[in-house]
Amino acid sequence: MQQKLAILWHGYVAVRFNSLPRNLRGGLWILGGGIFFTIMVTLIKIVGEDVSIFQILLVRQLTMTAVVMPAIAANFPDALRTNIVGLHGMRVALALVAMIAGFTAVIHLPLAEATTLSFAKSIFVTLFAVWLLREHAGRRKWLAVLLGFVGVIVILKPDVAGLNVYALLGILSAAAAGCVMILIRKIAQVDRPVTILAYQAFMVGALMLLPAIYFWVPPTPLQWLFMVAIGLLAVTSQFANIQAYKVGEASSIAPVDYVRLLFAGAIGWVVFHESPQIETILGAALIIAASLITLRPQPPETTPR
In this structure, is the dihedral angle defined by the CA atoms of residues 5, 6, 10 and 11, taken in order, positive or negative? Predict the structure, then answer.
């Protein structure tokens, strides 16, 4: 009886959810993905106090690979067939730079500050799209790039004592992640999503194996639990984002992702006793404003009559 009631309840929830407007559903998926992602980086910050980032990434990747393996196995060996192995390798290498630098920044910076710096990715996407894809960027997008970099400088707080190396790692992570987005756009025009998943699954695990063994620290049972949870949360947040952009318009739902700043600030305050500095708040406002400008559709070009 309880099982039947549970099936009826889940069916009712699914019907009600699917009856919502598409952008509202997309926004709720983004919101859920943001919650899962923020919990993931919180666990990385906790575990990273005693365990190397390479070890965390290896367990994370093995967990993610176990989850996606049925999809890869169902398409094997076609999933590995590609004529652009070099692009896959470049994409994985840059993704590793983004993860190592970004997660290191998360461990050593206040959670809200590290999260804010990650949003600079949209600025680098614009720059790399112009440089590598020869996309046109009008005055509005260049203004957004300038505004975003001002926000980054505000957060970095450069002075005579120098720059915070972990904040610089956060910027490096955002730049690498922006380049990864461009490469995915190019790869997706040639290869299927399952091929992209397969090369990421195998390459990341292989590249992390030796450094993880070299820096290996025997984890406690709780740390093992957290590291596996990090992998599961990564898959869940990625799935939520895929679903979001599948049902909603990018320009309408992408700004919802900035709610992550509120989650990060709240968790940083409650769990790590961090108080966001005024520079972080001001820099976040500038970076978010810049990102929202880039999300707005370009006005149609008018031709003189």
Answer: negative
- From the number of C-beta atoms within 10 Å of its C-beta (0-12, 13-18, 19+), residue 116 rates as buried
Per the CB < 8 A criterion, the answer to whether 135 and 267 are in contact is no
Return the H-helix or E-strand segment holding 209. helix 193-214
Record the pTM: 0.82
62 vs 47: CA distance, rounded Å: 17
Name, in order, each residue with C-beta under 8 angstroms of 297's C-beta and a sequence gap of 6 or more.
251
Q: Which residues of 202-229 are buried (b: 16+ CB within 10 A; e: fewer)?
A: bbbbebbeebbeeeeeebeeebeebbbb
Is residue 97 within 8 Å of 176, Cβ to Cβ?
Answer: yes
The rounded distance, in Å, linking the Cα atoms of 171 and 105 is: 9
d(C-alpha 286, C-alpha 291), whole Å: 9
Give the DSSP letter string of 232-273.
HHHHHHHHHHHHHHHHS-HHHHGGGGGGHHHHHHHHHHHHS-
- Model pLDDT for residues 139-175, shown as the tens digit of each residue: 777 777 788 778 888 777 765 455 678 988 999 999 9
3-state secondary structure (DSSP) of residue 296: coil
Distance CA 111, CA 281 (A): 13
Residues 6+ away with beta carbon under 8 Å from 174: 98, 102, 117, 118, 119, 120, 121, 123, 124
Cis peptide, bond prior to residue 77, ω within 30 of zero: yes
pLDDT digits (tens, 9 = 90+) for 47-77: 999 999 999 999 999 998 888 888 888 887 8
The torsion angles phi and psi of 192, rounded to 5 degrees, stand at -80, 160
